[in-house]
Design brief:
Radius of gyration: 23 Å
Number of strands: 24
Helix content: 10-25%
Low-confidence stretches: 1-19
Number of helices: 11
Oligomer: single chain
Largest sheet: 8 strands, parallel, barrel
Strand content: 25-35%
Mean pLDDT: 94
């Protein structure tokens, strides 16, 4: 056996890896990426825990992704150029995480350094003062570094957390005041609060038209910078009143904006339009938007995050032509512990079984244990200690990599019996089977036709078996 150093974590590679092309890797909290191919042995198909029918295919997988934010770039900028390159190479290379989808905010987000928009001049309905100059400091440098690795498959998509301040009824970026005395105050007073279910946007023709022009200016400006935006969603969490930049919309108002203003404004831009991001489990809100005929003709897909996972199944059933996306994995509390890493697996299992084609993680990199501008600690793929110019790979990255590294663009999810697993058929004929195991170490047998293989799943782990076409 040979030993490989990987981001400070021990990886043990067995001889069967090279001999057969079969791969079996496992992630636990203490062993982040262990090769166990040598332990895969023939099994008995009749006794298989999981029997795979290669004809039972479901949705096509189109990519795994992560979000680029100002705070991500700020943390990476504290490292040496060599370390920053190594991190991005690992996340976006085919030999590493193979991520290919990048989310970015349109204006301020909950992980921007402060409040801002691209139109800070009140009443600038013609967008004559529109400017992305601020993004040249953080977002564009990060996106350009990522896209320098693009093999032609990378996709950038974007959504706003908040429109320009002068387009909001409240005159505040946040939708409700920050009442927790341990967190920084925001710009919203109790008198300015806009509640969930209310329109925070000024819903008239002039503001709708100006905001649609704002989106078009954004995608055109980014394309001119060499960052083509494949797709936009009209509002992040449109029914959530938050203490950070946010904007609530009634579903009927959002449908009017998309169908009569935003959709037409984006025609000819090369940028698609999805509905989302939906953060509530109410199918009725989604239906209001998706049943609007003017709106629906522009929408290519729909995105869901957090409690929106409760609506995705019904949306898929009722609107089978939509491409579905998980837009933001639940982001934890900054501890980057195994409990949340295990939850990451549970979320992937849920969303892929509900038919998503894209799966997006949230924070790429953050300063270790640091709060956002609005007082929130969150998890990230990488944690940085600026004073030491050092970084750590967090275990959630390795859990996501158990799928993203093996499941190739164009793979089809395979329908299977219920269990703590997922299965995919890659375009090259290989089969990927990922397992969760929340208990003690155990054996599991997978059968494809008359052939079967038995693997040993480590205790409290996520593991992946890759069966090349030559093995079947």
């Amino acid at each position: 056996m040979r030993k490989i150093a990987f981001a400070g974590i021990l990886v043990v590679a067995g001889p069967a890896f090279a001999a057969t092309g079969m791969e079996f890797t496992s992630t636990t909290f203490t062993e982040r990426w262990r090769d166990g191919a040598a332990s895969v042995v023939p099994g008995k198909a009749a006794d298989a825990d999981l029997k795979i029918d290669l004809a039972a295919t479901d949705q096509t997988v189109l990519g795994f992704g992560v979000c680029a934010s100002e705070l991500s770039w700020n943390s990476l900028s504290a490292l040496s150029e060599a370390d920053r390159k190594a991190i991005l190479d690992e996340i976006f290379s085919k030999d590493g995480g193979a991520f290919s989808v990048i989310r970015t905010p349109i204006g301020a987000s909950d992980f921007s350094a402060d409040y801002y928009s691209y139109s800070e001049t009140p009443g600038d309905f013609a967008m004559e003062k529109f400017s992305i100059e601020r993004d040249r400091k953080a977002l564009l440098p990060l996106l350009k570094e990522i896209l320098s690795r693009n093999d032609g498959t990378f996709k950038v998509w974007a959504s706003p957390w908040c429109p320009p301040l002068w387009m909001k009824k409240s005159g505040a970026y946040a939708s409700k005041p920050q009442t927790d005395p341990t967190w920084p105050k925001n710009d919203c007073s109790p008198a300015q609060q806009v509640h969930e279910g209310e329109d925070g946007f000024i819903c008239d023709d002039a503001h709708f038209a100006a905001y649609a022009k704002y989106f078009r200016k954004y995608v055109d400006a980014y394309r001119a910078e060499g960052v083509p935006v494949w797709m936009v969603m009209p509002q992040n969490e449109f029914n959530s009143d938050q203490v950070f930049p946010s904007c609530t919309w009634q579903a009927k108002s959002l449908a009017t904006f998309v169908g009569k203003y935003l959709g037409p404004a984006l025609e000819g831009s090369g940028t698609e339009l999805y509905f989302g991001t939906m953060e509530r489990p109410s199918f009725e809100m989604a239906r209001t938007v998706l049943d609007d005929p003017d709106c629906r003709r522009y929408l290519k897909g729909a995105g869901f995050q957090w409690a929106g996972k409760g609506a995705i199944g019904k949306v898929r059933e009722m609107y089978p032509g939509l491409t579905l996306m998980q837009t933001e994995q639940e982001c934890g509390d900054g501890r980057n512990d195994w409990n949340h890493a295990r939850h990451s697996w549970e979320l992937m299992r849920h969303y892929f079984r509900c038919g998503v084609s894209y799966y997006c993680y949230w924070n790429l990199s953050l300063v270790d244990n640091a709060m956002s501008r609005w007082g929130w600690r969150q998890n990230s793929l990488v944690s940085v200690v600026p004073a030491e110019r050092s970084f750590t790979w967090n275990v959630e990255y390795h859990v996501l990599k158990q799928l993203s590294h093996y499941v190739k663009r164009g793979a089809r999810r395979l329908k299977t019996a219920e269990g703590d697993w997922l299965a995919f058929a890659n375009p090259d004929g290989s089969v990927v089977v990922a397992f969760g195991n929340a208990g003690p170490a155990r054996k599991a047998t997978v059968a494809v036709g008359e052939k079967s293989w038995t693997v040993t799943l480590p205790a409290d782990s996520v593991s992946t078996l890759l069966l090349p076409s030559s093995e079947r």
